[in-house]
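Researcher: I'd like a structural prediction for the single chain below. Treat it as a standalone chain; there are no partners to consider.
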Amino acid sequence: MKKPLSRRQFIHGVGGLSLALPFMPSLLAPGTSNAAPNTIPKRFVALCTFDGYYQSVYYPTANANNQFSSDVFYKSLNDIDGPISEVFGPEFDAFRSKMNIYRGLDIPGSTGHSRANMLCAAAREVFGDDNPVDPVGTSKSIDVLLAKSSNFYKSIPQFSALRGQEPSYNYSQSFDKDANNKTICLPYDTNPKDMFQQVFGNRIADPGVAAQFNAKKVKLGDLLLANYKTLMGHRRISSEDKVTLDNFVTQLQDLNSRINSSPTILSCSTPTLRTLSSGYWDLMTEQDRANHFSNYIDTMVSAMACDLTRISVISMRLHGHDHALSHADPNNRGNQLQYLANTKKISAVYTELARKMDAYKEIDGSSMLDNSILYWGSEDAVGGAHTCMSMPAVSLGSAGGALKTGYYVDYRTRPFVPHPDQDTGMGRSYTQLLITFMRSLGLQPSDYLTSGDGGGFGSFNKNSSYSNGHYLAYEKFRNDVLPFVA
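Model: Treating it as a single chain, here is the predicted structure.
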């Protein structure tokens, strides 16, 4: 008689190596407690960038000419002829119905390189991991709030969140509070092989066993084949769980081929890192850099598919080594073309995340992307003045239908009230976007309202000097979800 599997299932290989399997409810023993919920899990994935954007090429040139309310206008992305914008080119066409572009979401009073803006809406300058400014009211970031909420995680998975970045720019955009209520920056992995080893790697501690394992040059097929056939032939496995298991093995095979150039996988030791004399990745080729982020993506998507985590964050520098470009004239066409060349490297990471999340199918036929929020934002709105009017924000996925998608939504007040350092109209609070994401993913106000400046989540300077009282009318909405999309 075949023994039913436990709630947490493993494939065991040579030398005691173990890999966590995706949850397969049909193989649980009858009456097993702590079974997975019937609902399909929601995930949050963020691509964090820096330095702001050239808004003249970021937003659609087509006007959001459909009026939802006095200060909310929208346009269906499917009604925009040609590319959505110069930033959102043809590579985004397949995702138009699953995508939102948001405009007119402000963090009044925020200036400088405010690392706490994108995920905290904190309006505070937080510089390096080793020297964070700790103002009163710095919020916890939403990846942290999600990870700590029982409304998001009914039980904490193996990894509450995965976070990775390039090795050249060591700035975290994820923040928590320590026991003394001091702001702390959470560390990010800087090498995707380390993350892979942590998530899918072996648990072998004995160096002798490790050496024996490596000497055998065990391939993925050797490790998985017998266990895979046993599980697929189990008399109780459902057709849905067969699809889950098959997806898992396929993804792991692809992940292995990307992480390692040789067929040997799951090394028992930490991979040797390439030495960079400057501490940046200037010595890498462009293909190396692309592969660096692809390895993060494959590890994260596979981990989420196996329900080892439901939160992933990638931090990526927009202008690479040329920070000066963010301070250049955004209306100069030469600058715009260089900016677009750099930004396409980031949009390639974002669309790769989208494609791979969309390719993973849940048991009801929907995709991982459909049940997630995949967010791309920045610490600043524009680089030159480091202002935060119309924070760049795009999301993919509806969190299982909680968000209305497929729109360019403009929240700027009409007629436009321009910011003195930026040719754009002022709008409403950016906090509403992050709250919309959190509520769509299941959080309740009690999960986040105490993480901010005392008036609710994040920061909202209603008396910002340049606003001439513009934001006073929006203070009462700062803790609401955004109109139209939620």
